[in-house]
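Internal QA ticket QA-208
Title: Verify multi-chain structure generation after dependency bump
Assignee: T.L.

Test input:
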Amino acid sequence: MRRQMHGFGGRFNPEANLVTLVQLKSGQSGTVVDIHGGRRIIDRLNALGIIPGKKITKTSAMLMRGPVTIAVDRVEVAIGFGMANKVMVTPERVP
Amino acid sequence: MTRILLTGNPNVGKSVLFSRLTGVQAIVSNYPGTTISYTRGHMKLGEEMAEVIDVPGTYTLEPTSEAEEIALRLLGSGDIVINVVNAINLERNLYLTLQLLERGIPMVVALNLWDDTKHRGIDIDLDKLRQLLGVPVIPTVAVTGQGVKELAENIPRATSPQHPPATRDQRWATIGKIIEQVQQIRHRHHTWRERLADASVKPVSGGFIALAILAASFFVVRFIGEGLINYVLNPLFNTLWSPVLSWLSNLMGGTGFLHDIVIGKLIDGEVDLVQSFGLLSSGLFVPFGMVLPYIISFYFVLGILEDTGYLPRLAVLMDTIMHRLGLHGYAIIPNLLGLGCNVPAILATRILESKRERFIAATLISIAVPCAALQAMIFGLVGARGIQYVAIVYGTLFIVWIILGLILNHTVKGFSPELLIEIPPYRLPPWRTVLQKLWFRTYSFLAEAIPIILGAILVINVLYILGVFDAIANFTAPVVTGLLGLPKEAVTALVIGFLRKDVALGMLAPLALSSSQLVVGSVVLAMLFPCIATFVVMFRELGWLNMLKAVGVMIVAALVTGGILNLIL
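Actual output:
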C-alpha cells in the first residue's frame, strides 16, 4: 500500500517540479520552497520577507545574467542573478 | 532629555516624518537608503523638549550593511521608539516591529503611506492591530502632514508590552496570524504607473526608458544651467559688478600687492572675471557666475529623479555592467550622486554591503566622477573651445571609470555580494520636497564652497608673490611638461586642485593653453587629488590605509591617462 503511494510517478513529490527563480517564467507565480544558499543570503532574503512558504510573482529578468525582479506582498524586489539562482520555487500551475 | 528614535524599514518616509515633527530639513528621496547617517532634531513633548533622531532604515536588527549597523547602535540609546511602518506592506514591516517589541523599548507605531492603502485596495483593522501589538498605532501621511499631530500627541502613550524573544520562524508565524486578523486585500486592476514600473525593469523597454531619461536629464541640466548663465548671471556680473571692479581697480592704482589680492591681475588693461584671480573678481565669479547655475540645475534634476523612484530601476538595469567593476547595480546611486559632489557620494557608499565594494566605489568616484563644480568649469572653459573637447574629457573619464573598475575588480581581495533591493513604486515628485531639497543642497554648496574658494584665492596670490609656485613648478617640470605636455606653471593648478577643483581649473585659463592641453589639464585635474573635503571623508569612511591605497591608484591612473592623452591629441 505504502509502496503504491510512492508510485504515482512523483506527481505529489514537490521536488519534481522545483525550479529556481531564474528558471521561473516572467509573469508566472510560485511558492518559495527553499533557499540553497549560505547564512548571509538567507539572512538578507529573510529581511525582505522572502522565506519558504511565501508566494511570489516574477515580474521580469534582465538579459546576460542580470537581476530577477519579483513581487512579494505587493512590493517589487530585485534579486541579483546568482542569488536568484539559489531560490527554489514550485511554480503555480496554469489553470 | 528624552530621546525619540524614528526607526523602520528603508523608504517608508521616516525622514519626511522627521522633518514634520522637528522642522529640521533632512534629505528625503524615493529610494531605500537615502539616510545613511543619522540626523538630529528637537520637538516639544508636553512641557519639555525631546531629542528626535532620524535613524537609517533597516529591515531587521540583524544588520547586513553599514547603514543598518548604525541603526542598531543607535537603538541602544533611545527612550522611545516611533516605528514607522509602510501600510502597503504590513507583512514585511512587522518583522522589524516584532523585533523592536522584543527589545522592550516603549513604542508607538506610525502607519505611514496610509492614503495609498485605499487606492491599492488594502483594508487594515486599526483597533485589532493596536490590540494585537499592544502599542498605539497612528495612521499617517507624512508627505501631506496628515496624522502627524495625532502621532505627536500619542508619543507619551508609548508602551512596551512584554513580547518574549522569538526565533525567526516564530516571528513570521506571529505575523501570519496578525495579518490574517487585520488585513484584507481587495482585487483591483493594474494602474498605468505599475505598467510603467514593470516596463522600466524589462530588458528592451527598460533600456530605452533609461536612455531617454538620462538623455533628457543631461539636456535639462544643460538647458537650465546655460539659461541661468546667459540670461541671469552673466548680465548681472557684466552690467552691475564689472563697472564696480573697474572703478575699484582704478582707485587702487591698477597694480600692487593689495590690488593683486583683492582685484587680481589686469588682463589687457581690464579686470577679467575669470582670469584676474582676485578675491572680488574670480573669487566671486567662479562660485556664483559659473558653478552655482550648474549646482542648481544638477540638483534640481537629481531631486526629481530621486523622488520619482527611478534610481533603483536604473540600478537593476546597470547590475550586469556594475558586476564587472566589482560592484552591484545599486552602486550606480553613489556614482550618480558623485556628479553633484564627491563627499555625499562617498558617504552614500554605506548602502553597499561589503568593505571591498565600498573601497572600489569610493576610489572610482574620487578618480573618475567629476563633481558639478568641476563640470561647470569644464563646460565654461573647455566648452568655449568647442563641444567636441568637452566630449573628449567626458569620454576619457568614462573609459577610465570602466577600465579602473575592471582592474580593481580583478585585484582587490574579498567578495562583492549580489544585488538585493526593494524597488519603490513610482510617485509623482512632491514639489515641496524637490524644492526644499534643492534649496538645502544649494545652500550647503554656498556655505561650504565660498569660504574655501576665497581662502584658496588668497593662498594662491600670496604663494605667487612669495615665489613658492615657481619653485614647485621648476621641481615638477619634468613630469608636467615631459609627460603631460603642459607648461610648468600648470602645476599650480594641480596643487590648488587639492583645495577646490573649480578654482584650480580656473587657474588654467590665463595660461594660453592649446585646446588639447586644456583637455589634458582638465582630465588630469579631475582625476588627480580629490579636493580636501573628499580626502577627509575618504579617510573617515575607508581608514588611512585604504585611503592611501586609493591615492596611490589615483596618482598612477591620472599620470598614465594624462600621458596617453598627451600622446594621442
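Spot checks passed. DSSP finds 24 helices and nine strands in chain B.
Status: verified.
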